[in-house]
Write a structure and sequence with these properties.
about 120 residues, two-stranded antiparallel sheet, extended, alpha+beta, about 30% helix, single chain, 4 strands, about 10% strand, 3 helices
Length: about 120
């Protein structure tokens, strides 16, 4: 990917060991960037619970590489696949036409005035 795709972390935090001993559950995270090369830091005193899988963040410089672009597209399609939907009768529908019908029926019912929300 070359030198055009260099990433650096500009924003850092610093604390003493005694402060860290007093607040052992402290976590500092970077806010998602908002178009700037700086990111706000968030200090939290709550225990950190890691998700089972880290979030995927697409980097625009990857789009220049056709192999990476194809890999990202394949992975996104695989994760977006819906194997089946349960209809109002509790039956699992797995064929494409049936899944489409179940989804349309669900949203039609949800957004009609008869719907009880």
């Amino acid at each position: 990917m070359g030198a055009a795709c260099i990433r650096e972390r500009l924003d850092r935090a610093l604390c003493s060991q005694s402060w860290l001993d007093s607040f052992p559950e402290t976590l500092i995270k970077h806010f998602t960037d908002q178009g700037s090369d700086h990111r706000a830091l968030v200090l939290s005193d709550k225990p950190y619970v890691r998700n089972s899988r880290p979030l995927f963040r697409f980097d625009a410089c990857w789009a220049k590489n056709p192999e990476v672009r194809a890999m990202v597209t394949r992975d996104r399609r695989r994760r977006n696949f819906v194997a089946g939907l349960q209809n109002e009768a509790g039956e699992w529908i797995t064929d494409e036409k049936g899944k489409t019908t179940v989804a349309i029926d669900f949203y039609r019912h949800l957004f009609t005035s008869e719907s009880q929300v």
